[in-house]
Write a structure and sequence with these properties.
The complex is a heterodimer of chains A (455) and B (574). Chain A is of the alpha/beta class and 455 residues long. Chain A is built from 15 helices and 16 strands. In chain A, strands 6-7-8-3-9-10 form a six-stranded mixed β-sheet, with helices on both faces. The longest helix of chain A is centred in the last third of the chain and has 17 residues. In chain B, a hairpin with a 2-residue loop joins strand 1 and strand 2. The longest helix of chain B is centred in the middle third of the chain and has 37 residues. Chain B is globular and about 65 Å long. Classes of the chains: A alpha/beta (455), B mainly alpha (574).
């Protein structure tokens, strides 16, 4: 991993890359990545950090040459990339081991494909297996191994190719807390000992602590569409000390950025929130909903309401719940959207309605939820409006699904529909018959007057 | 990694008892194949020189060998076809759009109706040799088993986990390496199970295709099926008994010596990353893994194997760049139109052929006959369900009984029911039962077991805690069936029902006309219509009959089974 002549050269450059997928029936396209530019240099560990929907895995796969960009270009060693990038090796979230091959055979796979002869292959593979601490397990099959050991095989399979850049796609997120902590530490040790079998590392993650711990540079991606919001340089001596106050403030800062999509990422810690840009009037179906069940929202609010002043520090909350950003932030988003909570400077604070919602009875919490939806979630109001206009007071599910499908790809539209149904059912604003795939207004017109506070 | 034999291994003799058994077994197998295979190229000059079938039971092992050899040749061809067809369909979007619907239709076409066409074709292909008949018979078996296997392989290829696929691309596996290391292994378990089931069904067709009369001409091929046919013609009951015994022995032997070891071996291809609950075992497989000869041979062959696969790998480099998806679309639209055009022309020409030769009245007549056979198939399904599901559920709920009986039911399902037809025919003749009703029973002889088999499997799949809950809340009698058992076994029942109905349609061609010596029983139905047309070589009627039957099967599948499948998948599953 020695940098050539002490000068940092670009190993991979992403130049104004966009990726979009066509929506069904020529309704236009759905943009996953928009105008992304970044570069990976020799001798650094870089994280791509973003929430779900930021296209971070897509970006990684474009850089690996697994999928072509729609616009823009990827350069590998200054040369345009066509097809799979043979300068990189990838470690997958699900390990991606072939269950019918032994550990050794799995590790040998890439070498065999490159036509390395059997003797050399065996020697190099055994060395890589040794490096990840799997000595003695060469002839075991993956199904005999624990999750952590499987991912070690994944690392060995990548190491043995001595790639220029090692790609990791959420490599620790399928492991339990202790195992992932252990493996993360070992990878970091290997890097710090300067014996790492690649010149640079690019890791995709949604775990903020992990990014700050492992990386020299954290590139923050924004969602809808995915884009680079900026980068944060982790200016700490290696290995990064988690107890260092600077470490904590960096984590705090990144949390602040991630919970406020409008903040500009300057890389300098301590930032005042920027004024919110004006939202243009659009169809209510064009705006995504956070995919959260009502149970998740009320569970989180109940945890926060027990804290002094109904305020909680988000990194601490995440640590307490053992939830990664992808799981926690959507719940926070939903709480903010519904006016139950406010987020600022890495803290979450419950509003008066939120405190009420978290502590009241189930029946009243349904009323409150309905009241907040009427005020803040136009798409569900629009559904109810459509149902009211029908004489049968019911409508095919496809109708609404298609409206979402105008703006989102099918899988996303399905999730949006499921979320809207969950919220609408809970608020008793409409009913859904999954067998007939129809939405109905409930029999008793409980929703006729918009607000009925204080019983 | 063991590069040297352990001291313990060195102390042992190079050969153990297992090796002796393996060597002997291999030699016997080779001798048998050589001996039996030699018979396939004897001279054959119809109509003067025809092979005779001798009813002496001592000849049965030889005949059974000939039939078994045919089965294995067909199985081998099915594998080759499956790998090629499935691979192409899964890897080319355009090919997929023709190949998969075609497979769906071919699967629904009654194989037996084809026999007449293929027999004449293949005899013309190999003049003066029995090979023509031989290939026709093999082709019949092939068409009876190949579609299932191909579907299974295609489906497995489509469901290879995405990240495994990405790993294969990124690690630059050549097409050959991807095929041998990723695609075939991940399809292996499904493919083997399907092959085993189809092989069981194949016995029915081997028996049917060995003795067939086409275009007023009797063709006989030495084999266990023609032995049965001759015994029927000569009204020789003891010979039929011997044939029955032989086929039982052959099926059990093939299962023990061939399928069990393969199934045991294939367990390592299980994709679930945890150790499986019940590992299939086989004494032959244990023998082969204990013996040292196979391993020694393996080490000897390894360098050769290595260089061959290296060669194949360099011949099939991994695809360079992923294609841009924009440009293809316009071409695809043209492709679709062209396809529609070709289909239209084909349909029109078949219609024109039928209408110009037999006329519209005949079409309506066959449709009516089709309805009659449809009624038979439906009665069979309902009756088999009413009788066998309660029994199947009772067996499935009792683990000990299930373990004991399941192999037996599986055996019954793969047993060729046409070996029992003569006995039942005799019963009909003695009691005077009309074949109009009797044919339902004949069709059921083969089809009912699928319902039983799947009911057992379905009952076993109901979680124990659900059954305990049912006991706890006091569900009993009909309520228990309504709330727990029927929904619980529904999806398994649908699987069984589809297989049973497919089998029954096929069997209708042989069970609506049966004979005992010179006595002939005929039922009114589409199966009898096709069988009669085949015997006299009436091409327009054969075409019409097959077309109408395919129409019924495809229609039945689309309108009923597919919907039930969807219901099972979305609502009734655990």
């Amino acid at each position: 991993m020695a940098a050539t002549n002490g000068q940092l050269s670009n190993l991979i450059t992403v130049d104004q890359v966009s990726k979009s997928f066509p929506l069904p029936e020529g309704k236009g396209e759905f943009t996953v990545l928009s105008n992304v530019s970044l570069s990976i240099r020799t001798g650094e560990v870089v994280a791509l950090l973003g929430r779900s929907g930021s296209g971070k895995s897509t970006l990684l796969r474009i850089m690996a040459g697994l999928i072509p960009p729609t616009r823009g270009e990827v350069l590998s060693n200054e040369r345009p990339l066509r097809g799979p990038n043979d300068k990189v090796a990838m470690v997958f979230q699900s390990f991606a081991l072939l269950p019918w091959l032994t550990v050794l055979e799995n590790v040998e796979l890439g070498l065999e494909a490159r036509g390395v002869r059997r003797g050399d292959r065996l020697r190099q593979s055994l060395k890589a297996i040794d490096l990840v601490g799997l000595d003695g397990f060469e002839s075991a099959y993956p199904k005999e191994l624990s999750g952590g050991m499987k991912q070690r095989v994944g690392f060995a399979r990548a190491f043995v190719l001595r790639p220029q850049v090692l790609f990791m796609d959420e490599p620790f997120s399928a492991l339990d807390v202790l195992t992932s902590e252990n493996l993360r530490g070992e990878i970091d040790d290997l890097w710090n000992a300067k014996t790492f079998p690649s010149e640079s590392i690019l890791i995709v993650t949604h775990n903020i602590e992990e990014a700050v711990f492992l990386c020299d540079r954290v590139i923050i991606l924004g969602a809808n569409p995915g884009r680079v919001r900026g980068e944060v340089v982790i200016d700490l001596p290696r290995p990064h000390d988690r107890t260092h106050p600077r470490f904590k403030s960096l984590v705090e800062y990144i949390y602040t950025i991630m919970t406020n999509p409008e903040i500009e990422v300057t890389g300098t810690v301590s930032v005042a929130p920027q004024p919110t840009p004006e939202v243009t009037t659009q169809s209510p179906y064009a705006k995504p909903l956070p995919h959260v069940r009502v149970g998740g929202i009320s569970g989180l609010l109940e945890l926060i309401v027990d804290q002094p002043q109904g305020t909680d520090d988000i990194p601490r909350l995440a640590e307490r719940l053992q939830l990664a950003v992808d799981d926690l932030l959507p719940i926070l988003d939903a709480s903010v959207l519904l006016g139950f909570a406010e987020v600022s400077q890495g803290d979450v604070r419950l509003t008066a309605v939120g405190q009420d919602f978290a502590t009241t009875t189930i029946l009243r919490s349904k009323d409150l939820f309905r009241q907040q939806i009427l005020q803040h979630v136009p798409v569900i109001n629009s559904i109810v409006q459509t149902l009211r206009e029908k004489r049968s007071r019911s409508m095919r599910a496809d109708f609404f699904f298609d409206l979402w499908n105008e703006y989102f790809p099918t899988t996303e539209a399905e999730r949006l529909f499921a979320t809207a149904v969950d919220w609408g059912r809970y608020a008793e604003m409409f009913e859904y018959d999954a067998g007939e795939e129809r939405l109905y207004l409930p029999e008793s017109p409980a929703i006729a007057p918009p607000i009925e506070t204080e019983t | 990694m063991k590069t040297f034999p352990s001291p313990e291994a060195l102390q042992r003799l190079p050969f153990g008892l297992a090796d002796v058994a393996v060597i002997l077994g291999t030699l016997i197998l080779l001798a048998l194949v050589a001996n039996i295979g030699a018979g396939t190229t004897v001279s054959f000059q119809p109509p003067e020189i025809l092979p005779e079938v001798n009813l002496d039971p001592l000849n049965l092992p030889y005949y059974a060998g000939r039939s078994t050899l045919r089965m294995f040749v067909a199985l081998f061809l099915s594998w080759m076809f499956t790998l090629a067809y499935g691979y192409i369909a899964a890897n080319s979007k355009r090919a997929e759009r023709i190949m998969i619907p075609m497979l769906d239709i071919l699967q629904s076409v009654p194989v037996l109706g084809f026999l007449s066409i293929t027999v004449t074709g293949f005899i013309a292909l190999f003049p003066g040799s029995l090979l023509g008949l031989e290939t026709a018979s093999i082709f019949a078996i092939f068409t009876s088993q190949v579609w299932n296997m191909t579907f299974s392989f295609y489906q497995s290829l489509r469901t290879v986990p995405k990240e495994l696929h990405e790993a294969a691309v990124l690690y630059r596996l050549s097409r050959w390496e991807r095929f041998t290391k990723l695609e075939v292994p991940s399809a292996m378990i499904g493919l083997l199970w399907n092959a085993m089931m189809s092989f069981g069904g194949g016995w029915f067709f081997v028996a049917e295709s060995e003795a067939i009369s086409v275009l007023n001409q009797e063709y006989t091929l030495p084999g266990i099926g023609s032995y049965v046919a001759t015994a029927i013609a000569q009204e020789n009951l003891p010979a039929l008994g011997w044939a029955l015994l032989t086929i039982v022995v052959v099926i059990v032997a093939v299962d023990q010596l061939f399928w069990r070891p393969l199934i045991a071996w294939s367990d390592k291809f299980r994709v679930e990353q945890s150790a499986s609950v019940e590992v299939p075992s086989s004494w032959v497989y244990d023998l082969l893994t204990t013996a040292r000869i196979p391993r020694l041979l393996g080490q000897f062959v390894l360098p050769l194997q290595e260089s061959i696969s290296h060669f194949l790998a360099t011949m099939t480099p991994s695809p360079a760049a992923p294609r841009q998806d924009q440009t293809i679309r316009n071409g695809d639209r043209w492709f679709d139109w062209a396809l529609l055009g070709i289909i239209g022309i084909c349909l029109a020409s078949v219609l024109q052929f039928i209408l110009s030769t037999v006329g519209i009245a005949e079409v309506f007549k066959t449709l009516g006959l089709g309805l009659l056979t449809l009624v038979r198939v439906s009665v069979l399904l309902v009756a088999a369900t009413l009788i066998w599901t309660p029994i199947g559920v009772a067996i499935g709920f009792n683990p000990r009984l299930a373990r004991l009986l399941q192999p037996l039911v599986q055996f019954l399902a793969s047993f060729p029911s046409n070996f029992i037809f003569p006995f039942v025919t005799l019963l009909f003749l003695r009691t005077g039962i009309s074949l109009d009703f009797g044919s339902i029973m004949l069709m059921a002889l083969g089809a009912q077991w699928y319902i039983l088999f799947n009911s057992i499997a379905g009952a076993q799949s109901i979680p124990t805690d659900l059954r305990e809950m049912a006991d706890d809340v006091g569900l009993a009698g009909w309520q228990r069936w309504q709330k727990l058992i029927i929904p619980g076994i529904f999806s398994a029942w649908v699987t069984g029902g589809v297989t049973a109905s497919g089998g029954a349609w096929n069997a209708s061609i042989v069970s609506e006309i049966v004979a005992w010596g010179t006595n002939k029983l005929t039922a009114t139905g589409l199966g009898a219509y096709i069988a009669t047309a085949t015997a006299v070589g009436d091409w327009p009627k054969i075409t019409l009959g097959i077309a109408v039957m395919s129409l019924f099967v495809v229609g039945f599948n689309r309108l009923i089974w597919r919907r039930l499948y969807q219901l099972a998948e979305t609502k009734y599953h655990f």
